[in-house]
Amino acid sequence: MGEMRDLLKKSGYSDKAADYYLNKVNVGELIDPDAYAIYTGPCGDTMEFFLKIEDGTIKDASFQAIGCAGAFSSGSALSDMVRGKTVEEAKKLEEEDIVKFLDKIPLQKIHCACLAKRTMRKAIAAYEGKSFIV
Description:
By secondary structure, this protein is α+β, with helices and mostly antiparallel strands. The protein has one domain: Sufe protein. Chain: A (Alpha-Beta Complex), CATH 3.90.1010.10. The protein is 47% helix and 19% strand. The chain has helices at residues 2-11, 15-22, 69-82, 87-91, 95-102, 110-127, and strands spanning 35-40, 46-54, 57-66. The chain has a three-stranded antiparallel β-sheet, with helices on one face. The mean pLDDT is 95.
C-alpha cells in the first residue's frame, strides 16, 4: 500500500485524499436508503449515492463507483461531509468544498468532485420527487 500512496502523492493527491481512496471509506450500499441515485459523468465514471434521511437531516451516506482514485476520494469525502447536515445544506455543497475538504486532488480530477456532487444532488432530487437537472 506504501507504493500506491507514493504514486497518489506524486500525482497530486493529499494524504487525506489518498487515505479515503486506499481505505475505501463510506464505500458500499446502504440498505433501504431514503434517497438513491446513479449517475454517469461525461468522463465515463459512474457513481451511486445512498442517503438515510430523518426529519430533513442526513443521518447516513455511502456510495459506490466505477472510477478512478479521484472519484473514490470525492465520493468518500462527500459522504462524510453530508452526514449531520440538513438536505438544504447538502444541496449547497459545491465541488470546491469537496476539494477543500480533501486538502488537494489533482487539477485534472476536479470533475470527480463534480461527479460526486451531481450524484448526491440527483439522489436528493429523487427523494424530493423532483427531476434532476445538471
